[in-house]
């Protein structure tokens, strides 16, 4: 499965014909080269895990272009986010003007990545 042996155009056409296999067609770029060098991992806890509160959070966080990944978690927090921003000033704007404006949040813990050690895009599907 994949685009092996296909030209970029043919690969794109194949992805368009089989959207259930390929939910997105994207280019992999170096975040530093496009002005987004800061990776932040954020753990978010909600006041409760009522369905309406979960749905509100998921809908609102999905509107934030800075959020690259969002996971519903077990353990000490309800969600884990990965956010990319150009600098600390932009992170503060994201935190104050977007994240803290989502109703139902009880706790936010942010960690800044110092260095990316592993960056895989290929799934281990036994090829």
Summarize it.
The chain contains three helices and four strands.
Shape: globular
What is the beta-strand fraction? Answer: 15-25%
Helix-strand makeup class: alpha+beta
Total number of helical segments? 3
CATH class of the domain at 31-112: Alpha Beta
Instruction: Write the CATH architecture name of the domain at 31-112.
Output: 2-Layer Sandwich
| Name given to the CATH homologous superfamily of the domain at 31-112 | Lrp/AsnC effector binding domain/regulation of amino acid metabolism (RAM) domain
Q: What value does the average pLDDT take? A: 89
The largest sheet, given as strand count, sense and whether it forms a barrel, is: 4 strands, antiparallel
Biggest sheet, spatial arrangement of strands:
2-3-1-4
Uncertain parts:
none
CATH topology of the domain at 31-112: Alpha-Beta Plaits
State the end-to-end distance: 9 Å
């Amino acid at each position: 499965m994949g685009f092996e042996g296909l030209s970029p155009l043919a690969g794109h056409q194949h992805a368009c014909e089989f959207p259930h296999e390929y939910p997105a067609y994207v280019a992999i770029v170096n975040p530093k080269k496009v002005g987004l060098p800061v990776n932040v991992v954020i753990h978010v806890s909600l006041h409760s895990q009522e369905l309406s509160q979960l749905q509100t959070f998921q809908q609102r966080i999905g509107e934030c272009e800075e959020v690259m990944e969002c996971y519903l978690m077990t353990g000490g927090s309800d969600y884990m986010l990965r956010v990319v921003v150009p600098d600390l000033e932009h992170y503060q704007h994201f935190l104050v003007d977007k994240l803290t404006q989502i109703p139902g949040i009880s706790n936010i813990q942010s960690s800044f990545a110092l260095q990316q050690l592993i960056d895989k895009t290929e799934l281990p599907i036994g090829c």
